[in-house]
Amino acid sequence: MARSTPDIPNASMADIAFLLLTFFLMTTTVPNDKGLLLFLPPPPEAVKEENVEIPEKNLFKIQINSFDNLLVENEIWNRSDRELTDKIKEFILNYGQNPQSSDNPEKAIVSFKTDRGTTHKKFIQILDAAEAAYNEIYAENAGIPVDKWREVSSEPNASPENRQLYDRGRKLKPDGKPEIPKNLSIAEPTKVGG
Amino acid sequence: MSKFKKKTKTKQEIPTSSMPDVVFMLLFFFMVTTKMRESSIEVQQRIPQATQLRKLAKKSLISYLYIGEPRKIEQFGKEPKIQANDVFIEPKDIIQWVNMEKSELDEVERDAITISLKVDSEAKRGIIADVETELRKANARKILYSSNAKVQDKK
Q1: B56 touches chain A (CB under 8 A)
Q2: Which one of A26, B21, B121, B131 has the lowest number of neighbouring Cβ atoms within 10 Å?
Q3: Facing residue for B23 by CB, picked from A21, A33, A119
């Protein structure tokens, strides 16, 4: 006598799986963790009050007021971001050629000052221009495209090759300090407003 | 005549028996990669654009702060607010929040915590600077200004 084999109906399995699939498809959010990476200075209490005199020529001053107007090296800036990037690059890599500009990249500081009323959009735009200047210099030193450099610098310790490229880009000196540190200073915003 | 009447023996259907397998594979992929958003964002998020983006490798180290004008203006007013997890917080609460986030990480990783600031384009620097000051005090000094990729104009 032929036994009837017990069967679970599986015709609807595909439908159920499709339903679940649709649910996960719709709820999935692709995480976007990209942005401008920045290291804040140590807490205000830990910083000793020191009046370090920085010569004016070693400072590249960028000021933004609450109307998002730009003052670069004390002059009103109406030109493109690209030109700003080039100007910053020129400033960093001056090596004392122009007596009015920086002595060397180690001493050169790009200083930001914003107002409390400056919009975040403008701030990011200008910070991006400054980042671009440094990244382009580093990438050129390391001999790789800028995109590649950004990947490498995101995680310099991921592999020995990354470390090597990273050190080459920043021109690491024998004493362990980079010859071209990223000296971006973001000052406390002013409260002038208006 | 019979030459044309000959029926082809080849089947024309697509085999569907493997469809559930294919669908299950897709399903598992999305189930594994999906990360439920644990909080609904109550502030405006028009993320600014930038070119020099960097990506963070370790997602588990990232904590998010959302800053912007509240979506429900009639309820919370027009002033930009800071949202952490599911609630609005004041700048002075940030130290506590950071410590809470840090306690969820392994001890060795605590100092490597990264704060991703998702700031609306129209938010003002004032409030962001307040947040930064508190983050410095809380010793969470690695921050990421979240931004989207801008289409680079070739020169």
Answers
A1: yes
A2: A26
A3: A21
